Amino acid sequence: MKAWHFTGTNEPLIEAEIEEPKAPAGYVVIDVKAAGLCHSDVGVLRDPGWMGIIAKTPIVMGHEIAGVITELGEGVTEFAVGDKVAVCPTGPSGEGAPGYSRDGGFAEKTTAPAADLVKIPDGLSFKMAAAGTDAGMTSYHAIFTIGGAEAGQKVGMIGIGGLGQFGLQAAVAKGLEVYAVDTSDHALKLAQELGAKKVAQSITEFKEEELDLIIDYAGFDTTTREALATVKAQGKVVLVGMGKLETTLNVNDFILGERAVLGSNGGTKEDMADVYELMQSGKLNPTLTEITFAEIPAGIEQLERGEVVGRLVAIRE
């Protein structure tokens, strides 16, 4: 079968012919129907700092996976061949994320621990389910599980791209007042259409709003520092984006304001289920850009250049 191999930093993805996987005990084989792409894929290709979490090379990238089970490993009883499933990349198995700890979804078939699977609800497309595995789950987890957001609170969101648009819609659906930030006029227009209270190109423009919580979906150092300087005293900044792998903090903002900076990594199967429920209800309807599996390398380059509208998903349906 065909798969896209990552071999090293700043090396192009290589289309490889590899053997179809078999399901070890506790695992299933999935016929991949859709696989999402995100900025962490750009990070892996361009930043050597990511090599510390890559288990092997070559490795099949792709951590946002949705498809159909074609084989069950020994001991798997809660799923059946033919089930439509998505993979929680930070699931409870402890086996690590696909595309980093093991071969992922940029292939015709892949394996996943049964413990990390979430059934795709009837009527939800594979492309929506794939996007929900990371962009949906990660954005939701940052706001509600880590950030502890509650209805009526004021929440700032930095970066209204693949993650931010999910988070914004989920927040509005759950009664939050959202203040959206992006450097793209198109993204700000989208934020307004999705229900943002106000939009701006810098989070510092909302200093007077006394934001309870700020989610940094960009993570480009200055965005994090400005978020800490803007959030109200005793407020929280949740860092999700990894645009830069290092940042510096103003100690005055941090200590004197008793502000908190929290990291948010992925999410849970429960977060995914909540996201799928919002999708089914029509309250979460993210913009997706579709490509074919053959276009995955070009799609990552588009992400790097900032040319993608919404969330990018490769389709094999």
UniProtKB/TrEMBL annotation:
Matching Pfam families: ADH_N, ADH_zinc_N
Q: Which Gene3D superfamilies match?
A: Medium-chain alcohol dehydrogenases, catalytic domain, NAD(P)-binding Rossmann-like Domain
- Entry-linked CDD domains: hydroxyacyl_CoA_DH (cd08254)
Cofactor requirement: Zn(2+)
Give residue ranges for domain Enoyl reductase (ER).
Answer: 8-314
What's the domain of life for this entry?
Answer: Bacteria
Keyword annotations: Metal-binding, Oxidoreductase, Zinc
UniProt-listed PANTHER family: D-ARABINOSE 1-DEHYDROGENASE (NADP(+)), L-THREONINE 3-DEHYDROGENASE
> What does the sequence similarity comment in the record state about its family?
Belongs to the zinc-containing alcohol dehydrogenase family.
Under which name does UniProt file this protein? Zinc-binding dehydrogenase
Q: Show the taxonomic lineage.
A: Bacteria, Bacillati, Bacillota, Bacilli, Lactobacillales
